[in-house]
Inverse folding.
């Protein structure tokens, strides 16, 4: 443990020197910290694109609606890899999960730890190794923002490795509610039964989303205007088990006693209430006018989201119902409220966008795969992006290319699909046979992506090369 920490410090120091103190050693060159915005990142597990009210869904999330009314909604936003661990890695590092060799969820173990760095999946046709933790040498959001004068805190679901690879090992000052589990056994304490000690001291029955919010609010209450902060809250909800809060269920039943209240609606209601509490805390501290709020999901859920096809389940995750996510940014004084953008956005964009807001320089992080969304948020320009690529390696190895209105999906086993999302959001009409030239064009885009990141080809039959950090 001590050796790992020393190695990490040496690595970050080397990066600082190599970049001329642009990023990790940037404190001396940064603008006065009081001019920098605070940043709150709210990341919801298994939140489908149309499971929020601003997409006219019946669940109702008024506090999220308020964020949309005061910020910008990206209507065409995606998870770089719609799976728990890869999507989190893409947000924390700004790198594509394929580059990180973290293409599947970190599997559970009896004690929550792993002796080996990689695992393989039996039904994966190329047996691509996927990491069991996020390497300490990969720069995190906290690593990037702390030299710019930021305090940093992480709350909630990590799912990027066990204790030696927890957020505080990745540059965060403090962490709360972090476990070695991908999801709780119950959302009522004790949350993780006997497999993890996180929150073990809490009174029986305390609702997990409420406890995470308590910790987030308590952290905000300790902040002031002398130093900016970055608060990262990764909710466990609405990952199964579908375990509703009795309090929230009662509220929903009171509002509409004739309507059946689904556990998922109650779980999302608890998340929405959490968003409201966090915003109220910012207002009480008079920090809200200088705090950027990101709200997004990691992937679609288990429940279908019509009219979109697919869910998070295997073989369906790269369809719109599994891959498209809610994505809202509220930036007071910069973003015009109630605006939308159809520019393609992806989870890897969070890192460079936050870094730019804080006055940092993305060029100091040469492995970034995301883009700074500031030009779009400021309504100054369109994003310099032609396509985004999503990649998975489970029961098959498959990838998707979204380019303009087109969506191309390729499978290692040989199947190709092409959809026109402008006229067919449900992805019900495969045009791959009718439009071979478009398939050829997008296949070339995917091939170039695989070559650039040196990953096993969905296109072609290359063998896996030696896995090494990128």
């Amino acid at each position: 443990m001590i050796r790992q920490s020393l190695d990490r410090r040496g690595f970050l120091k080397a990066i600082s020197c190599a970049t001329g103190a642009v990023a990790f050693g940037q404190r001396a060159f940064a603008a006065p910290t009081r001019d920098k915005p605070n940043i709150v990142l709210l990341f919801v597990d298994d939140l489908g694109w149309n499971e929020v009210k601003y997409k006219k869904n019946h669940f109702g999330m008024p506090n999220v609606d308020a964020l949309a009314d005061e910020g910008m909604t990206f209507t065409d936003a995606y998870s770089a890899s719609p799976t728990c661990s890869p999507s989190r890695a893409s947000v924390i590092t700004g790198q594509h999960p394929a580059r990180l060799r973290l293409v599947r969820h970190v599997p559970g173990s009896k004690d929550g730890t792993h002796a080996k760095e990689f695992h393989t999946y039996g039904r994966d046709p190329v047996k691509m190794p996927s990491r069991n933790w996020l390497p300490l040498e990969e720069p995190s959001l906290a690593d990037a923002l702390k030299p710019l004068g930021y305090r940093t805190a992480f709350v909630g679901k990590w799912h990027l490795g066990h204790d030696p690879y927890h957020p505080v090992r990745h540059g965060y000052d403090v962490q709360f509610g972090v476990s070695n589990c991908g999801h709780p056994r119950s959302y009522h304490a004790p949350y993780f039964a006997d497999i993890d000690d996180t929150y073990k001291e809490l009174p029986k029955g305390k609702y997990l989303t409420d406890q995470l919010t308590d910790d987030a609010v308590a952290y905000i209450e300790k902040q002031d205007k002398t130093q900016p902060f970055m608060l990262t809250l990764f909710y466990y909800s609405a990952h199964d088990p579908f375990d509703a809060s009795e309090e929230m269920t009662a509220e929903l039943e009171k509002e509409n006693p004739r309507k059946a209240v689904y556990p998922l609606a109650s779980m999302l209601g608890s998340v929405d209430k959490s968003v409201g509490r966090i915003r109220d805390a910012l207002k009480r501290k008079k920090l809200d006018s200088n705090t950027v709020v990101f709200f997004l999901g990691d992937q679609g859920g288990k429940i279908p989201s019509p009219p979109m096809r697919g869910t998070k389940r295997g073989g369906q995750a790269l369809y719109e119902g599994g891959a498209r996510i809610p994505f809202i940014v509220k930036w007071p004084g910069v973003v015009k409220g109630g605006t939308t953008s159809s520019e393609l956005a992806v989870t890897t964009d969070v890192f460079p966008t936050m870094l730019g807001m804080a006055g940092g320089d993305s060029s100091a992080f040469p492995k970034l795969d995301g883009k700074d969304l500031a030009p779009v948020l400021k309504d100054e320009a369109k994003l310099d992006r032609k396509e985004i690529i999503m990649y998975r390696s489970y029961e098959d190895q498959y990838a998707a290319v979204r380019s303009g209105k087109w969506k191309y999906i390729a499978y290692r086993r040989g199947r190709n699909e092409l959809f026109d999302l402008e006229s067919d959001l449900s992805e019900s009409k495969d045009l791959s046979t009718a439009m071979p030239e478009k398939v050829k064009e997008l296949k070339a885009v995917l091939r170039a992506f695989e070559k650039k990141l040196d990953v096993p080809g969905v296109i072609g039959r290359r063998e896996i090369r030696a896995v090494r950090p990128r």
